[in-house]
Amino acid sequence: MEFTVLLVDDESPAREELRYLLESYTEIKIIGEASSGQEAIEKILTLKPDVIFLDIQLSDMDGFEVAWQVFSEGVTPVVVFATAYDEYAVRAFEINALDYILKPFSEKRLDKTVKRLFEVFGERKQKQESLKVSEYLQKTRKTACSKLSLWKNDRIYLVCPEEICYCEAIEKGSKIKTEKGEFLSPYTLSELEEKIGSPDFVRTHKSYLVNFDKVKEIIPWFNGTFILSIKGYEKDEVPVSRRHAKEIREMFEI
């Protein structure tokens, strides 16, 4: 996870010190510096950094004005105020600044700020991925379904595909795990995939066909593979093989 940073301070030594400390974090990419409020506004609107480390007392305007001007343009970077004065802390948090650090900068104190940034961007990424999954499923979900004839205890049950959580290949057909329990089918996974005919159902492995509407989590695993946690079957570990991992990444942009 990488995020971009713009440094804003009218004192060159302060910018250099902050750059030196931040460059020790490989996830942080410093994309520019500004020595005045006006220069900062122009660069923020052009470069759109994820984070700005912003001094409060600049030569032409204060840091609060810089923040308000870019916010009013619809650009909303995370703001960390970096200043020699502690009397502006309350005002800083009124504009939802993530943090307020004092000069001279302490490595230990700055590390706390960076950890908070990791938390913020980690949460954003999770929300974005969840939204992508939801949008994809909503876009491709079928409005109607044909029921499948499935076996359980020598009886035949008619099951709607949208009730299926996932299917697992077994020696003579498939095991079908649904919201209402487990069933058996004489059909292979390829035959089931063709019969269901829904883009919600994706092959994740030669032995698994998954209804992605029922996926609770996509968990990174070894060698670029994944493990899926399925609603109602959280204790089961449904694999995504290397062969199918690329398709899953492209599908959900992860």
TrEMBL record:
<dbReference type="InterPro" id="IPR046947">
    <property type="entry name" value="LytR-like"/>
</dbReference>
<dbReference type="GO" id="GO:0000156">
    <property type="term" value="F:phosphorelay response regulator activity"/>
</dbReference>
<dbReference type="InterPro" id="IPR001789">
    <property type="entry name" value="Sig_transdc_resp-reg_receiver"/>
</dbReference>
<feature type="domain" description="Response regulatory">
    <location>
        <begin position="4"/>
        <end position="118"/>
    </location>
</feature>
<protein>
    <recommendedName>
        <fullName>Stage 0 sporulation protein A homolog</fullName>
    </recommendedName>
</protein>
<dbReference type="InterPro" id="IPR011006">
    <property type="entry name" value="CheY-like_superfamily"/>
</dbReference>
<dbReference type="Pfam" id="PF00072">
    <property type="entry name" value="Response_reg"/>
</dbReference>
<comment type="function">
    <text>May play the central regulatory role in sporulation. It may be an element of the effector pathway responsible for the activation of sporulation genes in response to nutritional stress. Spo0A may act in concert with spo0H (a sigma factor) to control the expression of some genes that are critical to the sporulation process.</text>
</comment>
<dbReference type="Pfam" id="PF04397">
    <property type="entry name" value="LytTR"/>
</dbReference>
<dbReference type="GO" id="GO:0003677">
    <property type="term" value="F:DNA binding"/>
</dbReference>
<keyword id="KW-0597">Phosphoprotein</keyword>
<feature type="modified residue" description="4-aspartylphosphate">
    <location>
        <position position="55"/>
    </location>
</feature>
<feature type="domain" description="HTH LytTR-type">
    <location>
        <begin position="148"/>
        <end position="254"/>
    </location>
</feature>
<dbReference type="InterPro" id="IPR007492">
    <property type="entry name" value="LytTR_DNA-bd_dom"/>
</dbReference>
